[in-house]
C-alpha cells in the first residue's frame, strides 16, 4: 500500500509539473516594460530601480532570489552597493561591462560566492546603463542593493508582481509568467542566438544540462525538422 501511495504521489507530482506553465521573458518584453516604466524620460526612483533589477535578472541569468532581499538583511548574503563593480574601459574599443558578486545562491550551499560578468549592450535594454542610472539615484546607505524610495528592500514577490502588472498592461496572460521567467528567457534567447551549450551553462551557472529544459523551442523550428531530415543527403 505504501509503495502504491508513493507511485501515485510521483505521478501526481509529474503531472503537476507538466501543467505548470512558465513562459520566458524576452527582449521584446523588456522593451515593452521600458516603455511602460517611461525610463527614457523619468527619474522616478522606483521605476529606475525596478528596471535595473529586471535587466540584471535577464542579462545576468539570475534567480530573483539572488538579487532581492527576502529575509532580514545580511550583508554576507544579499547584494549590496559594493557587489557591483564597473571596471574602467581600456581605450575606445575596450569592452564595457560590470561584475556582480553573487554571495549566495541555490547551488552554493557553502556561500562561497560567485562573480558574474554582465556586458553592456549599447541598446535601450542595456543592463550596465540601467544599473549605473539606478545607482546614481540611490542614496549611499548600507543595506540591500535594490530598495524602494521608502527605503524598503525589493523582494522577489514584489518584483514578480511588478513584472506581471507590466505583462498584463502589455496584453499578455500574466499568469503564465513567474519569477523564473527571466532565467528561462535568458537561456532561450541565448539558444536562439546560437551560443554554444558550454557558454550557456557558464552564464547560468548550471552544473548539468538541466538548463535545456528551460529553453522554449519555437514551433517554427520544430515544424521544420521533418523537411530538414528529408533533405539531408544519405551517406
From TrEMBL:
Q: Which domain of life is it from?
A: Eukaryota
Q: Which GO terms describe its biological process?
A: DNA integration; DNA recombination
According to the UniProt entry, the coiled-coil residues are: none
Against Gene3D superfamilies, the record matches this protein to: Intergrase catalytic core
Name under which the protein is recorded = Retrovirus-related Pol poly from transposon 412
Q: Which GO terms describe its molecular function?
A: DNA binding
Instruction: Kindly give the InterPro entries that the UniProt entry links to this protein.
Output: DNA_brk_join_enz, Integrase-like_cat_sf, Phage_Integrase-like_Recomb
Amino acid at each position: 500500500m505504501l509503495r502504491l501511495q508513493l507511485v501515485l504521489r510521483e505521478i501526481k507530482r509529474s503531472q503537476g509539473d507538466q501543467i505548470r506553465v512558465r513562459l520566458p521573458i524576452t527582449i521584446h518584453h523588456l522593451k515593452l516594460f521600458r516603455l511602460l516604466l517611461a525610463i527614457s524620460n523619468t527619474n522616478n526612483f522606483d521605476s529606475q530601480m525596478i528596471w535595473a533589477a529586471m535587466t540584471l535578472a535577464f542579462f545576468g541569468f539570475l534567480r530573483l532570489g539572488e538579487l532581492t532581499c527576502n529575509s532580514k538583511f545580511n550583508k554576507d548574503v544579499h547584494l549590496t552597493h559594493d557587489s557591483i563593480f564597473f571596471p574602467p574601459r581600456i581605450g575606445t574599443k575596450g569592452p564595457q561591462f560590470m561584475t556582480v558578486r553573487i554571495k549566495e545562491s541555490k547551488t552554493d550551499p557553502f556561500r562561497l560566492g560567485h562573480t558574474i560578468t554582465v556586458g553592456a549592450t549599447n541598446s535601450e535594454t542595456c543592463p550596465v546603463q540601467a544599473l549605473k542610472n539606478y545607482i546614481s539615484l540611490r542614496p549611499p546607505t548600507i543595506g540591500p542593493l535594490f530598495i524602494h524610495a521608502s527605503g524598503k528592500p525589493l523582494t522577489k514577490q514584489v518584483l514578480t508582481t511588478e513584472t506581471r502588472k507590466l505583462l498584463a498592461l502589455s496584453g499578455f496572460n500574466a499568469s503564465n509568467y513567474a519569477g523564473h521567467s527571466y532565467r528561462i528567457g535568458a537561456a532561450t534567447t541565448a539558444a536562439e542566438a546560437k551560443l554554444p551549450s558550454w557558454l550557456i551553462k557558464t552564464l547560468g551557472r548550471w552544473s548539468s544540462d538541466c538548463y535545456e529544459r528551460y529553453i522554449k523551442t519555437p514551433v517554427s523550428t520544430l515544424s521544420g525538422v521533418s523537411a530538414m531530415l528529408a533533405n539531408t543527403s544519405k551517406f
